[in-house]
Amino acid sequence: MKNQSSAIEQLDRYIRARYPAIAVLSHEESRVMASIQAVAERRGRRVVTWTCTQGLQQVRPEDAFNDWHPDSDLAFDLEMTRNEVAALEEIYNYNEKAQEVLAKRNQTFEDVGLVLFVIKDIHGFLGSRACRLLARVLLSILPCLFK
To answer: Which residue of 12, 50, 69, 112 lies most exposed, with the fewest beta carbons within 10 A?
Structure first.
């Protein structure tokens, strides 16, 4: 258990330091996701995951009630975002989209929580030139988008 708590602390430090990307290699996806969720809750952030089979999806917080539903105004087109390049473009455009939605509601990111994007198994797609270029652009702009 000590290893998991130190991993959570290290992940928390990286997020507070605003690392634009954190790569985690593990055979224990559920433990990694539990750690990410714990840090997200501690920092008041929401979690969005991507897989090639499910696209971008908002993750239900552990302390949410059974009637919890993703924010429909900030939802992603699951069919379209199954494509890795389309998903990265959605992440790239998320800040602008969220600001428009929140302005209509008279809310800020602090009201709804910033987002941690978890991109699972992307290593298989990084051979794509378009995906590599878009990932490079994302890594260069993410720190300034989510301050």
So the answer is: 69
